[in-house]
Give the backbone structure.
Amino acid sequence: MNELSYELAPQHATIAVLHDDSQLAHEVLAQLSVLSQLELVTSLLNDDIASIASTSASLVLLIQADATPLPTAVVALLQEQPQAIGVSQQLVTLDYLSAYVQEQVLWPWSKHLLFNRIEQLSQLYQTHQKIDGLRQALAWHKARVDREHQLVEHIFKNALSRNYLNYQYVNTYLTPVSKFNGDLCLISPGPLGNIYMLMADFTGHGLAPATGALPLSQAFFAMADRGVSVAEMVTEFNYRMSRLLPNDMFCAAILLELSANGERVNYWNGGMPAALLINEKGDVLRHLKPTHVALGVLDDEEFDSRVTSFRAPKGSSIAMFTDGVIELLGHQHKFLGADALEILLSTYPKPEDFPQIVKELERFRGETPLHDDLSLAILCCRPTELGQTKTEYEHYGLPFRLESVLQAEQLKQLDPVALILSAISQLPHLRHHRTTIYLFLAEAFNNALEHGLLGLDSKLKQDADGFLAYYQQRYERLQQLREGEIRISLEFEPTHKEVTIRVADTGEGTPQHDGCDDFSENAYGRGLELLRQMTTDLTWDNETRTVSFKYRL
Amino acid sequence: MPLHRQFSIDGKELIISIKGKFDFSLVQEFRQAYSDVGDQQPTVFIDLRETEYLDSSALGMLLNMRKALGQSVKSIHIINCRPEVRSIFDISRFDKLFVIE
């Protein structure tokens, strides 16, 4: 796009000259043609003046030697022309013309008047042109800004499309001053049935803070999907904001997580007004005060991610709001204030009364225009009913068999169980059972390595120090290991969705494991018990050097 | 960092979260994480929201922690377990020894 539309090439003022072909007319025309900044369009004084009428002349000069009556077409033209000057050498003629033109020039005595007038006009014309150019440029820029706003609005809408504002146990009242909200109210379910809520207030309002809201919201949704802790989330937000925002801009925020059962609340408040925990009777139980500075102020080392947590009683709710609500200017030119807001919120503690709160706020404000974005959200502390995310996967999978034979050197260097898991986690069927399959493989493999090849004694694990010593020994003996191998095989049969695991070692043979029926508080002996309880067809072969079992997905 | 430890602002809660794999490779670090709980008798929260893998050595470590802390903490909660992790705790009857949320 070129931005030079207002720098039009300078055009000259056009002067239409109507004359009677007299000697006077030719004399005037000759003198006018000297003026370089003029464009002259001439025509004889008769009814055929169409060419003149069609030009948008800035000035009409009417040159007439004597008071011959003007043709009708000329009279009509002059009536529409605001700027017309009559020129004659006869006062009588000028007197006659005064009925049709605004100014008269007696030639040649007042010709300087004519030239002055023409010069003025030419300047005026150019000024007009410039203003017109600027007006056009302004209109063009406005169109461009509008288009860009639309674009950003679109991006914004998409970025926030998954904002879970219609979560059934939250009520919101979000009113931006301009098209773009400097406040941000984001809600997202977590993978464990928990729910996250972020209310943020960027300094300023309009497009600039909205731009900062984009990366913040993206980080929020991505981390909520992963079920990240509040402390980790705010650390990441601060990392992003401190790099992104200019020094004079920051982002006050409160991030809150409610557990799936609706009882446990973790929050971090940096620079936002204290949110309120209100019970169903309307008592304010707790102020969720800002114990930290806003996001984007401190660098990573100084940043404090410590959260506060509490148990929310049944039927209570948490009201979060931006300072725009507290500083809401009422129709009586008074601010609402934190105390009045608190009273208002505790007057209507029930979720179904939320419209009443909105009504009261709007009544307080009356016709007063907003001067800051308003955001108010009230979350009910109750079971979220969101459930844990379950991913669908297709029914038929690929049958396969995977075998890995590990020699002493590889056993020292690799973490075979983790490697096998990362490979089979690519298969959708098995991915959803990776935690369980990991447990099985880890138990069978560690048993083969620790007892089969390294000859460690589990009894060592009886107390905490022994536990540590056991793993110290494991490390040392593994470093000494010269020979021996472990063979891990994993087979998947998709029809019955059955996984068969077999782990064999070339060690001394482990002592036979009797069923340990006593689930004592011993820190050992649990691994095999887990296998016994969770798998089928558990068998020991080859003098206990081989263990195999099945597991149905 | 696979293990993260943080006290709440009021010092009444110690949150230990474990990311990825919870097994004997964290034995030292885990022990250190609860070595200093202060004298406020805090509640300990083991946050397993990002724990994908664990084996019986993790169960042993949790039991050792329980023994070591005894009365110096109010209680030990295991929170935010994914369903598979939860069923491992259930089978091991950890619900009798810890508060599992």
In short: Helices of chain B lie at 27-33, 56-69, 83-91.
